[in-house]
Amino acid sequence: MLNTEKCKKEQEELATLIDLSIPLHEISLIGAVDYAASENTVFAVIGIFDAETMKTKEVKHAMMDTPIPYLRDYSSYRFLPCVAEAFHQLESRPDIFFVRGEGILHPRRFGIASHFGLMADIATIGVSKELLCGIIHEDRILLGGNLLGHKITTKEHANPLYVSPGHKISPLDAKMLFDRYLTVHKLPEPLHIVHKLLAKTKREIKVTAL
Measured between alpha carbons, how far is 192 from 2 in angstroms, rounded to an integer? Predict the structure, then answer.
């Protein structure tokens, strides 16, 4: 079982290392991370794309058994080892990643996008379907007077997404980049592509394992 008290303390300590002051630079490669679970097996897919054309440059995946259950505030402890396995297979290094899950929009300001960004020493943006903390004022999400992220409704009548910086990017730049890559789908294009690849990869892995 996961020692949540130990993990909580670690999250609080690591959150102090997150840097949101780095200005957004020119992006040539952009990445996206998605993951899923089937009972005690987790899957992760990482895609790297040309930032202008969205041409796919690399796709890597990983699969791993884990005894760690899903706990909403501690999802990185379940999924991040598998994400890291896929990340270490990459031959190229993107300028920034979209990550499914929370960045600083987390009770301890340290969701999986922040955890991954700090581990990889790379800029990340968290995109989540759930709001774990904060007060919504118009499209801004505030906590203690600080801007943590933004609520974004990408399609009429669709459930909103919650966007926050993970590491090495500000909340405003994270939203700006999200908006830049939001085209015809509910998710920003890199994350949309990887989400589809994840479903395909899960099917292929399961068939191979039979």
Answer: 31
The phi, psi pair for 57, rounded to 5°, reads: -100, -40
Token pair in block for residue 13: 């300590």
Contact of 47 with 29, CB cutoff 8 Å: no
Global pTM reads 0.95
User: What is the tens place of the pLDDT at every residue in 173-203?
Assistant: 999 999 999 988 999 999 999 999 998 877 7
CATH number at residue 108: 3.30.2170.10
User: What's the one-letter identity of residue 75?
Assistant: S
- Reported as a single tens digit per residue, the pLDDT across 151-166 is 999 877 889 999 999 9
DSSP 72: G
How distant is the alpha carbon of residue 7 from its chain centre? 19
In which domain, by residue range, is 135 found? Answer: 4-209
How many domains would you assign to the chain? 1
Q: What are phi and psi of 94, to 5 degrees?
A: -75, 170
pLDDT digits (tens, 9 = 90+) for 97-123: 999 999 999 999 999 999 999 999 999
Task: Report the half-sphere exposure of 188 (CA within 13 A, side-chain side).
Answer: 30
Look at residues 41, 52, 118, 49 and name the one whose alpha carbon lies nearest to residue 90. 49
Identity (one letter) of the amino acid at 1? Answer: M
Facing residues of 70 across strands? Answer: none
Rounded CA Rg of the chain? 16
